[in-house]
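Let's do one together. I've listed all components of the complex below, 678 residues spread over two lines.
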Amino acid sequence: MPFEMLGEGLRIAFSWPTIGWMAFGVVLGIVIGAVPGIGPNLGMAVALPLTLPIGGANAIIFLVGIYSGSMYGGSIAAILVNVPGTAAAAATTFDGYPLSRQGMASMALSASAVSSAFAGFMTIAVLIIISPLIVTIVLAMGSPEYFLVAVLGLSMITIVARGSMVKGLVAGAFGLMLTTIGIAPMSSELRFTGGSLALYDGLSFVAAILGLFAIAEMLKLAGESGSIAREDIETSGSVMAGVREVVARPVTLVKSAFIGMFIGSLPGSGAAVSNFVAYGEAMRSSQSDEFGSGEITGVIAAEASNNGTVGGSLIPALSFGIPGSGATAVLLGGLLMHGLQPGPDLFETELALTYSVFIALFIGNVIILGLGLALITKTEYLTKVNTNYLIPLIVVLAIAGGFTLRSNWADLATILLLGAIGYYMFQHNYSVIAFILGLVLGPIAEENFIRSLQLSDGSWWIFLASWPSRVLVVVTLIILFGPIFKSWYVRRASGPT
Amino acid sequence: MDGKSRSEIALIFLFVAVAIVFVVQTFSFRSGSATLFPRMTAAVVIFGGMLLLAENYLPESLRRVVAEPVDLVDRDEFEQTDEVTPATEPSDQSDESAVRWGQLTERQFLFAAVTGYVVGSYAFSILLATPLFVAGYGYWNNQRTLYVAVLVLSSVAICMVFISLANAPLDRGLLFPRGIL
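Okay, and this is what the predicted structure of the assembly comes out as:
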């Protein structure tokens, strides 16, 4: 059965126009990743409404293409102008930019393209191999476990997001709370609509994403005028030297790719974390003291890990509906928008589609490798885009796209209000990703919570009834209270000062 | 509340106020199952919000938990302090030197313009409000007329794509309920 589905997935991924959407998504993703200030979250958010006419499979493959392409694209700005195009490329700046200043930008860019692509190949291959195991786990989960996995995802984000844990919890809980607007699950109760018909179906998740990513990001960008690149950027150096450097470091490549995949597979974490962990591990295991001043191993580690994260992050996103990052949250929005429910459905009736996404990612990495090596000398132009031209067009895409989905004026109000709230959340270090996670997980968490209580006649012990449930509860408690205990223990050990 | 800016305090008050309204409204629900989840999530928002507002008055051990960041990765360990700095630092124009037109900063103007865009869309239609917004924003940023014209045409093209491909009623507004196309 899985082999038949794999064959069907291959057929979908290589069919026209699906493969064309994948290629377009990857190219768009590279551009989006390379332009500082855009990034995959915003790029995928504004592309979401545009996917309406192209159908479910094409839309998801297109969005995955943007996600994958932007992971590589982020390294272009990181290497050329020392400003990571995405958070996932932050560690790439440490050695990529010094290499660029030493006249080896082409080498760093080609090393980035090759390590991104090969990390993608390896992790997607592993993802396809282990997918029967994922199917088994997903199908063994019941409502209590689904609710607890959602809570675990939210708990993770409070420590993965930089900043105060309480701020993360408040942001996540506020997102969860807003999802209760509209008709309650498993009852006909109308909640918090104020009698407005426009709110009967609740807040639009896509409108919320557009507000939080497009409008809030544009408000951030509005204070940063023009292009952040210098005019004297040159992509000098040897392209093939970068390829040779990657081939000469297979251990770093493989280790970093799977660090990325592992961290991506944890609910709530993503490439913004994995690139630092892989970079740290490369630094720890290397004899070189050139890290931070132009060590190519640093570029390889960071770039292999962030593309490895893409495959890993699809595991919790597709199997439990829990995004590992802002980009996977938007991807989930795309799934829901096209009537595809993350969870068992994607591993039973829609298994061929799931496989086609994995295979399309594989194809996407071939495109990254080809384009990355062929167009290195042209990439500098991407970093010179004037943001004053982008801002009005992105706002128009958000407003027109947000309205197109449901033709509901409440969605425009949602975009505006959440755009303002998102901007202030960013200003004061409240995790916008935790807020988005709350918005994504709210319906899943509430439905499974209520169903679990109905199954147990209202007894909360159902959340401790099975071994997976108990493990999930213990892990969640460790995540939430571990930092508090650690802080208390450290102070106690160090004694009064 | 010392140490928190007014905008952060306003943000926390907004979170807490919305949560309180949600809790109060749940008492009018007929279905018991519909009340549980909103109350639980609102309780976390209210409790967390109160802790953040009272942060400086908490015992030191609790204050640390509330205020101090928790991070899986110590990014500062890697970050450099040498010459490797951005080629040109993005200039934050929220400072006083950037104010124009009745003391509006770039961000304030953008937010005002987006608000006007949304209100205009509701009143006249997105198709009519879009070129006004894009042209207004372009001129306020002192962009060349040619660039503004290209941006306006591009933005109208975006609207037309949504209208033709997704059959979106972007030409309708309060004043034009049957559309302008």
